[in-house]
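User: Show me an example of a complex going from sequences to structure tokens.

Assistant: Sure. Here are the input components:
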Amino acid sequence: MDRIDVDKIAELARLEFSEDEKDRISSQLVKILDYIDNLNEVNTDTTSEMVYPGETPQKLNPEDDKLDEFPCIENLTSIAPDFGEGHFRVKKVID
Amino acid sequence: MPIREIVEQIKRGDKSCKDILNDIFPRIEQGHKKLNTFITLFIDRAMERAEKLDKMISSGKETGCLTGIPVAIKDNMLLEGTPTTCGSKMLENYISPYTATAVRKLEEAGAVIVGKTNMDEFAMGSSGENSFFGPTKNPHDPAKIPGGSSSGSAAAVADGQVMAALGSDTGGSIRQPAAMCGVVGMKPTYGFVSRYGLVAFASSLDQIGPFASTVEDAALVLKVIAGHDPKDSTSGNLGGWTPDPILKLDKGIEGRKIGIPKEYMAEGLSDDIRQRIEDTAKGLEKKGAIIKRDISLSLTDYSVAVYYIIAPAEASANLARYDGVKYGYRSMQGKDLQDDYKLSRQEGFGDEVKRRIMIGTYALSSGYYDAYYLKAQKVRELMKKDFMKVFNEVDFILAPTTPSTAFEIGEKIDDPLQMYLFDIYTTSCNLTGLPGMSIPAGKDSNGLPIGIQLITRWYNDPHLFTLAKEIEKIYEQ
């Protein structure tokens, strides 16, 4: 692998790199992904993917899935960069 | 002195909780100055807790098994009203809106939380060098790394600043700093401890666990924080039963089978650590254990590759929430909302976090998902079957925790892949959900701590402490 499309991946990840940073991160990622390619040595033709990282699959109890009131909404709104009139405020998205 | 005995002294009235704190505060202040162990200290809050506990004791009220014990928690666990920064500029000013279940249980047991410890940013790192608030240093040699990502918790316990601490382990982030700092550190079975209130890095890998100076103390802390939690849907539900880590502590290991995987003892492991594993095995044989030196975990060489697809993939999803809207850092430079997202994240995250988000985004992107993420999850399932086969032959695995003892701060910082390869012995436990512990096993020829790792079957955590206790006795002698 020579290069990855840093611009495309950064767009998906909502990150933005300078030109120097793009070169550096591209070469680092190529090296890491080249190493990771060794997984192709493992035959997984008849294997299904892991569902739960343990021995016993979780049995979810529907009774545990209760709707609770969050005890103090102020704890959530007071830490927002811009909260007012009952909303988290952002720059406008519609012209 | 064991935590249990200190608590007995406090409950008898020989010492007060305030006495304990007043004795330990100078140590915390000096130690933190030298080693950068904490991100936030809350001495006043701790003192108020201690006074409240002292009043409860003097009025005859029942208090818990950690009454008055100064503890620290890694700064990725929420404690209502206190900052939780995750070692990142992104959350530098974030105040926890609620308390994590494991942290609540510590306080209900009477522990006194003195502060939030330093860590690699968003738990991404194995050295303790990736914090926005500067690196933590190793108490045994401040020029060396303490290990990560629970760097501050390990160093604070090793330096005697606190008697126990909580860390989190996603690929070795409790066990590695425990090994580097010469303390006990344990990652429980996945699901044994609730993740509610633990800031997510990789949700199928993260677990909270204890640090302590002794096996008994670590077992006591785990007993307090463990158990099913309906607020965490991945929390193990064993029908009302929670394995008790204290129960089997002194049962001995006569007749127990312990395997040393040959792949873990191959090239790349330091001679000092290899010899220490062999010395430990001989010591355990004298205690009646049966050592099998030829067990095989044939997929060991692929564990780093599997981990560095799955963990970044899950991280890229979990860290998508940091967009500067509801909490966290918001850039002032953006001209529109999309700019706000990108600049907030670019400015708010450090290099390692951005690197892992990029790897994870790539692995999950259209056209690459099957080749990377799906492939890694299948190899992960094969790794689990590998361990299940081995646990038909043995009860425990004895292994190194790290390929070498602590290296110099700055030594591997420019080569991310070299740093990732340091996780070779620890990532398998997270990928398979198995419990693993690192316990101190003396020092190397340079005087740096060696940690050795013990692994067992799912939910066999109490017996892991049994084995650890026997090894602790070997090195006490």
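The lines above are the inputs; the final block is the predicted structure for all two components together. Chain B touches chain A through 74 residues (CB under 8 Å).
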